[in-house]
Amino acid sequence: FTTGRAFAVWTQGVATCLCVWSNQFTLANGWGTPRLIATATAGAAFLPQIAVDGFGNAHAVWTQSDESERSAIWANRFTAGGDWGTAVMIDDNTSGSGPPKIVVDSNANAYAVWEQASPNERGASIRWNRYESGTGWGAPGRIASATDVASGTGGNPAIAVDGDGVAHVVWEHDDGVQVRVRSSRLLPKASEWAAAMDAHNTDSAAEPRVAIDSAGDVTVVWEQIDGTGVAVWSNRFE
Hints:
The protein is mainly β. It is built from no helices and 20 strands. The strands form five sheets. Strands 9, 10, 11, 12 and 13 form a five-stranded antiparallel sheet that branches. Strands 1, 2, 3 and 4 form a four-stranded antiparallel sheet that branches. Strands 5-6-7-8 form a four-stranded antiparallel sheet, with no helix packed on it. A hairpin with a 3-residue loop joins strand 11 and strand 12 (about 135). The radius of gyration is 18 Å and the shape is globular.
């Protein structure tokens, strides 16, 4: 954050609780006192991610399981000049979800993405939710399928937002022959993501990541098997 404040989140086991904690660093005082921001008394909260907007608000997301071991996506928000709020579930809790990624835009909105299995779909799909400044989290939605086959291994989304508030997500998509890198984008205020595009990897790929420069050009990188080993590949959307 531009004022020199930093946030950290992690999973920590205390007694019977595997929960999510946070701490913040300020230039004046250094690291403060750790705060419990997710209490999973019937299950476990893990794999937290955090993003901070230009106004000093922080958004944390994580995967949380219940007593039946079904996992869902939860979130909490730190308000600049205030404190952490109450954790809320941001997916539809219909099946197993996780792990989430989160990003914020210049207008204090936040976008979370994750992979989710569904009993009504073939394999996993990529899901999302948006926090709108002044309104809160909306209804979770679906971006695209992550596989064409029931035993597919697709998923693992990553997300970035450009200076105009356009969100870009990438993920692994299993077409039954190889794992491909696919992407989609969402315009500000829109509720539907664009049709998925292929990043044109030439062999099975994994771990895609996305970044956007000041001109709005999108770069995607991923791991790919090249016949002799694993190499890092990239492509650019201008």
